[in-house]
Every structure is written in structure tokens, then in C-alpha cells.
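We emphasize that the prediction below concerns an isolated chain of 998 residues; any contacts that depend on oligomerization or on bound cofactors are therefore not represented. The input was used exactly as deposited, without trimming of termini.
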Amino acid sequence: MTAFMEGADKRYIIPVYQRKYDWRQENCRQLYEDLKKVIKNGRSSHFFGSIVSSVVPNGSKIEYHIIDGQQRLTTVSLLLLALCNLIAKGNLTSKEARLDEQISQRFLIAPWASEDDRIKLHPVKSDRAALAKLFGPEEDYDRASNLTLNYLFFRDILLKEEVSVDELYAAIGKLEIISITLEPDDNAQLIFESLNSTGLALAEGDKIRNYILMGLPSKEQSKYYTEYWEKIEKCTRNDVSSFVRDYLSIKQQMTPNVNTIYQAFKRYVEEVQLPIEALLEDLLKYARLFEKLLTCESGLGEKRLDNCLYRMARLEITVTRPFLMEVLRLNQDGKLSVEAVRDVFEITENYLFRRNICEVPTNALNKVFLTLNKEILRYDNTADNYVDKCIYALRAKRESGRFPDDQEFADALAVKQVYLMRGKYKAYLFERFENFGTVETKDVYAHLDNNEYSIEHIMPQHLTPAWTEELGPNAAEIHATWLHRLANLTLTGYNPNLSNKSFREKRDDKQGGYRNSGLRMNQKIGQKDAWGLSELEERSSEMVAQALQIWPCPQTDFKPAEKEFDSCTLDDEDVDLTGREIVKYSLLNTEQPAASWTDMFEHVVKFLHQKDKSVLSALACSADQATDLAGYVSGTGNELRSALQIDDTIYFEKNTSTAMKLSILRRLFALYDVDPMELVFYLKDPDSEKMAEASRFELRRRYWTYALPLIQKQHMHRGSFSNVSPSTSNTVVGFFGISGCSVQCIANYDGARIDFFLGSSDTAWNKSSFDLLYSHKAEIEEELGISLNWVRADQYKASWISYELKDVSIADEGDWPRMAKFHAEWSDAICNAVLPYLQSEDALGQRLSEIAGILREWTVSRPEVKENLAKCNRTLTRFTTDQMSEIFPAIPGAPSGWGTENHYFYEIVNRTGDKIHIQLALSSKNATEDFLETCDRVSSLPFVRPRKDGWKWWTIFRTESEKLGESVDKKEIFGKLDLCMEKVQAFEEELKQALAEQ
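Result of the prediction step, given as a C-alpha cell string:
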């Protein structure tokens, strides 16, 4: 390294297209630690990477234009400079005389050169002055420069003298590099891209700058850098990577991955074939629009617009930038008025905030704003009526893209736990409430940022006796319900003064009381005589009504000449497509008609196959049946129910649901590295919103019909879900005999979850039980082998423990096996781990529960027995048999006393825990004449137990009781049940023969 740097005639030029010096202290520390290891271990050398340069003779000097390696070269120069200066000032001493002069003249300066050329290293323009000041007095140092910061780091660590000056200087001399010097015909850019460096990785924006400027002659590099690139960096606050990502999103209607912006930009430039200057002009044009969004200064003289820009910037939402830049461009081009721009920005703000309050998933926003401008212009190919068309386009969105209407927004805001929202949204919300509709605004943001304001609970977080009396007999419930809601929150600059004081004290406090507050939102609170449920309800209604004015739902009479279709993307996994018909699809911005989902599926798979035939060929030939696509792709088609031929040796199963087709496509898109948002589906309108809602309900019912038997079977030893039936809710709940406690299985569009729920009416019990379990957190999680989510939820009455399965959806039938297995096994496992800490059953209760679990297992194990776990409990385990079902067949549409179509059950009776027997019981409820006639015939038989007149329940047979041992032994109980079953089968044969002989 030092050999490369030595020589008074050498100059090291960092070209203008290079990034600034940006190695951080951790990079410098690593270099210093490496040098210490060289000293400690007595190593003869240490590889430090490569430096690529092109040599440009310049009179008596030799200029090395550094293509790659400027970070290393600059860092070693800073280390040598720090060493030199410390020796020169006497802070460090060397055994070698005048070592400071040697370092300076060999590596850092050319002593006989002119003043402006003495420093051998020439960084980029923005770093040059900072480096020069390091050769002068310390008071002139540019402490904002990264060069200065790293120089000071080296100076400070050298002063610690962990190693001697001479040892360190010798170690620097052992740094080895690969020096690559390019010939004039070498392609500097290709070599630059191919280097594998251990230094700080270039940002995507740095690579783009190099790509644009590196291949140009030196004079053009300087011209374009000064006239365009330097201005682009300034406009984007040096975040060129993010800007170019938004720029490409606008130009290509596709958002590149953050790690592939450079490659996407290269492809774009090669496609459009623009001259370099024209490309830079366009980039600078959009960079100036990007700057308006960053600075919140539109330059259009519209204060409302700039205020809106500032508010959206505070929310740190970047997904809207491509759309908003296009809106500003349309104004710049004279196609949109300032008022129209303002209206569009405010509509966008309202759309985003309403969605946040209603907790609408954000995954659709990228695609919404990526295509929104194009969608608006496409209605009539003009920018006329832009605002109305924008409203129509957003209001027409459905599902995860929807614009919540007034009812949804009002309902959500009224019950929203506002205090628990993210800080930036809370600040935004209260700023709007305080300043909306007045010119006498307050800088709420600044006051919150400086901790001069805070968000105050009117009814405090912890109830005092005074507040309990104020709220009345339902104080705990009111507190749990309303504590964090909007109605109970306000702004104050005197939170410590108010704290847990009574309402009257808070109202009348001379310093910060509501009556004396300068904040508008506190003035009405100051007029109240009390603060209880009626005041909370009143303020809630008032604030929700005000919110509908602050964030109005826009209206328009615009209707496109040709009705737009509903749309969604392959990435929208939470959209329910049950019953929806596809009209067309767009893949990589190319639209194609589609006769059906199968038609779309076929064409998309064939398109992917043409892109790379190796992927599907490998799948079709794979013998690994454990892959996600096993059972759906084949090399012959013989094993598929309905084969769809893609190629001569590739077949797909087409007899699948729409959800399964989309699931397969998502897996294929991942294999082909295609963004699923690039596949857009256009759908026929559903008959009505009610139909869509019914479809969601029906989807849930179908999932629980599939999953519940598995859950019930897993829980049969305790019967938690025995009486649960498939429902239209996203949740099924199991109980286990502890009041208020339950285990809940939840199936959503974005995952599956299990909650162990402590929700009794006694808040104190819920919290103490949670604390008890939390004290055993380590043991519980060790037993399960997983980490749980523990939610004490002090703001609520209940507490809960959760475990979640991500990357599955109830909308994807292909995920149902994983979800059902998760719900069954993990709900049981969590109960097994948690319940022992809560159960306080007596010995008999525990014994009955343990025996009941074994009885259920026995019914499942016997093939001739048809168990009904939903009708089992701790004392009675019920089943049917084929033989008895021939005698007493089911009666469709006529529920028995058990609520079943069958009007009999065998019951294993376990009431005392020391003996069991099996009995046959009949129900006459809703029985037909044929059934009752059979009962009359049976009752006349001498071996049948008698019945009562007007009977509703009749036990016609029972076995003798089988005694159980003191310990609960599964093998013993199975043996006793087998004996009872022999008697049941003998009874069935006798009954069948007797009826036949009548």
C-alpha cells in the first residue's frame, strides 16, 4: 500500500462520479484492529483489498484516477496524517528521527508543488476543503465532514498508545493491495462492477452515478456532474437510491426491489436509449419534484397544500411519492391547477388516515399509488376533471384497497385505542383536532417534539378512590372500556400537574386546568361539572362528528364512459375471490383477456415456462413429493385428476379451486423471481356487497367444517371443543371448566393464531392469573420449545397469551392443512403447558377428566364405533354403531334431544371415577311415527329395560359396571371397555334377531 502511495510526482484523483468518502468509525476501527494483529502476531503482511486506477500523465506529474479503492486510500491517508501530526506536536515519539517529515513527504504532500497542488490526494469536490483543513490548525477543522470525524478517531486512539508509533508505522507498511492499472481501451465500468470488495458497499445511487458518468471523457464528466448530478444529490438530500426507485416506478409502472435499483435503472436506460444529457435533464426534473415532497414546499403559493405536505411528511409515508410527483408534474406542465393539486393531496391524506384508523392492511397501497395516475388519465385520456376522477378511482377500490366510508370510519374511530397508536399518528391526530378550522393555529408538533405538550388521560390510567366514586358503581367497566379512547384523551402542557387528580381538580387547577387552558379542545371539557359515562359518550359523538369534517369522505358524480372492473393482484392474499369471475389480467403491464380462471392460469404458467424452461422441467421430474407443488405438477399427467398440458413433459392439475390456482402461481412466481404484484386480475362485479360478505362467511364455515374435527380429536382427552360447531366467525372457542378462561383458534386472511384467553368478569383475577403464568414463562416456553406473545393488556379487562402462524391465509385452501394442524396441535400443547398452573380441581375432578380423555381415545381406536366428540363431556362419552343405526336410522331435519339427526347414543358413563359402564339411550324428541313404532316393538322384548309412559329419554340397555383400579391406567380401561363392548355387540345381535322374528 505504501509503495503505491509513495512518490512526490504522484497525485491520486477521485473522479467526480465517485461517491463522497463515507467509511464509518467501525470501518476505521477494523483497520486499526487488523494492524494491531499484524504487530501482535508478527505477521509479515496483511491483505487490504484492491485499488483500480487509470494512469493519466500530466506534465511532470502522474495522475492516478481512482476507479475503485478510494475508501481504503483515503482512510490510510487519514491514519498517516494523524500519526504525522501527533509526532510533529510531540504527543507521540518515535525512535526514528524526523519520522513526521518522512511520512508527510513520502505519502501525503509534494513539498515543492504549488500551494493548491501540495496535497497528493484529491478527493471529490465536497471533501476537498475538509481534507485541506486537516493540514492546518485544529480550530479550522470542518467537524461536519466524515473525513474529519475519522481523522479525529485515529488521533484519539493513537493517543492511547496501545502500540508504539514505530510498531504501527511498520504495520502500515505491511498492508498489501492488488493494484490494477487500466489501459486506455479497458472498460472501467465493467471492471468496477465485477470487483469483490470487503469495504463499505456502494449504495444503489452511487452505482447509478458511476454508470452514467464513468464512461465519459473527463471534461464531460465534470460538466454533467456540476450541471446535473450535483443538483440531483442536493434535491434528494443525497438519497439518490430512493429517488431513482420512485423515478423508475413512474416510468415503468413497476417498483424495483431496494437492492436491485441499479440493475433496474441500467435496463431502463438500455430500453429507452436516451442521450445522456436528456436522461440527466429528466432525472433532474423529477428530482426537483421529489425535493418538494421532502421540503414540504410546493413553491405554488398555496399554504393549505404546503401544510398538507408537511403533515404527510410527519407520517413518514413514502409509498405515495410516485403518484404525488406525477400530480406535481401535471401542474408543472400546465395541465392541473394549483387548487386541483391541493385537493388531490388532501384526498390522499384523508384516504391514508381513514385506512389507518380502520386498520385496513397496507399491502395494497404500493400498487394503488403506482398505477393511480395512469388509471385516472385512462378514463378519457386527458387530465380534465382530474380531482373527480381521482375520487372515483379511490372510492371504487375494494377489500384491502378500499377508501373507508363514513360509517366504517366513525365506528372505528369511536372505539379505537388511540393512546396505543404509534406516536406519529397520535401527534398527527391531535394536531388536526386542535388546528382544524382556525387561523389561530398552534405548533402542536413542535410542542410535542420538545415534550412541552403531552397527551393526557382525563380519566387517569390508575383509578383513585375519588375517581371510582366519580364514575359510580360501574367504574371498573367504564375505565377498562374508555381509558385509551379518543373521548378520554386531550392535549396539555401540564400533565405532571394534573396526573391522577380528581376531575374537578383537573378542571379548576390554576396552572394547566382545563378551564384556563389555551388549547381549544380543552375549553369544552372545562365547562363540565363531572366526568363519567355520559360525558365520555357525548364527547365521543362530538369528536367523531368533527373527524368526519376534518377527514371527509370525498364525493363525485363522475362515471367513466366504460365501467371499470374491480381489480386485485396476485399479492393480495386477503382478497376473497369466491364466486368472482375474471374478465382479463395484466402481466408485466400487458393486458390479456381471460375466459376463466383456468384460462388465465394456463396462459400465465406457459408464459413463465417460456421465460425459463428449466424451472418447471425440474419440478415435473422431481421425485421429491415433499415439495409445495407435489401433487399438482407431473411429467406424464397420468396421476393427475384433470391434466392441463403446458409442454410435452409438463402437466398441471387444473381441477382445483381458484384459491389453489393462485397459491400455485404465488409459489411459481417466487421460483421465477417475479413480483406477484405484476399479475393483476380484473373481475366482474359481484351481484352485491352482501354476496361478497356472505362469501366470506361461507369461507369461514367451510374452513371450520374442515378443521374442527381435527381440533376436537386433538382435544378429546379434555373435551374443550366438544360442543363447538362450524360457524361464520373467524374464531372458535374451547373451554375446560375454569370460569372465564378459554382457548381460541383464529383463522384470518393474513395468518392463523391461538389465544389462551383470561377473560372472566373479575379483572383482578385475570391479571393475577396472567402474572402467575408469566412468573412461569421460562418453564412454559421451554416445555413448548417456542416463544409466546404475552399480553397483560392493563387497559383491558382481559389478558391473553398468543402464538401465531404467518404466511398462511384462510382464503387459500392450500394452506388449510397447515392451519388446521397448527390450530389442533398447538392449542392442545399450549393448554397442556398452561392449565396445570391454573387448575384447582379436587382429586376426583382431575381423575374424571383423565378417565374421560382415555374413553374418547378408545372410541376413536375402535373401527366399529362412530365417535361423536362434540357430544361428549367429562361424565358421558357418546358414540353410535352401524348395527344400531340400521335399527334406529337417522331422521334428517328432525333434531333429537341431543340436537342430532340420530335419536340414539351409546353412552360410556363415568360419574364416580371408580367404575364405568355402557348404556344405550333413546330420545323421542321430533321422532317420526316409524321410529316410535320401532320403539314400541323393542319395548315388548323381555331383555329390554322398561320405559315410562310419555317418555322423552329411555335407557333400553346397560352393561354391568366395570370397576377401575386406584391408578388411572389406559391399558386397564381399554380392557374394561372391550369387555363392555362384547356385551353391546351381543345385545345388538339379540335385538336384531328378536325384531326379525316378530
